Amino acid sequence: MEFPDLGGHCHKTSCKQLDYLPFKCSYCKNAFCHEHSKPQDHDCPSAPQGDGARVPTCPICNAPVPVNKGEDPNIRMERHIANDCRPAPKTTSTKPFNSCSVQNCKQRVAVKLLCSGCGKNYCIKHRLEVDHMCEKVKSQNRATSISRLTGNSSGKNSGDSTTTTSNHMKPKLTVKNWMNKLFNRK
């Protein structure tokens, strides 16, 4: 044996097995092998009576109902239900869900995605102003189209020869126009 000081023998007199990682009992503080590690396995004199016994829980209020030694748990439970039992309060979901503000969209998300234009909450699919037909975008499009009309009808350029722009403005690049341009659709 290379490491004579490593580990320890099981403290149970009938076992005395050499264990390299012995368990220490939390009550009697002696070292035991894996087979005798629990207090009931090595008949621990320091362990309290009823150690490891389960306490029944009330099915109505989910509170533990202590039962004295020798007492019938069914009778004790009936007494608890008749006298002390109060139903547990109903809990609501702890996860906040935010539904999309688009009319027929039923999507719900855990994170609020508020539009900077209208201030409403939207899902991932409708989060962009163009996707949910935001009132801000509609009013901006109306204003730009009116300014284009008034700009074109007001007259010609100032006659400056250094500018290379034409008399009319380029149309605003929208998602739809960009997709059409990308896939060469007309």
TrEMBL record:
Positions of the UniProt region annotated as Disordered: 145-172
Query: Which stretches are tagged as biased composition: Polar residues?
Result: 145-168
* Assigned GO CC terms: cytoplasm
Which UniProt keywords are present, listed alphabetically? Answer: Metal-binding, Repeat, Zinc, Zinc-finger
Please name the GO terms that the record assigns under molecular function: zinc ion binding
Q: Pfam family example for this protein?
A: zf-C2H2_ZFAND2
Where is the AN1-type domain positioned along the sequence? 4-52, 94-142
Task: Determine if Metal-binding is one of this entry's keywords.
Answer: yes
Q: What is this protein called?
A: 4596_t:CDS:1
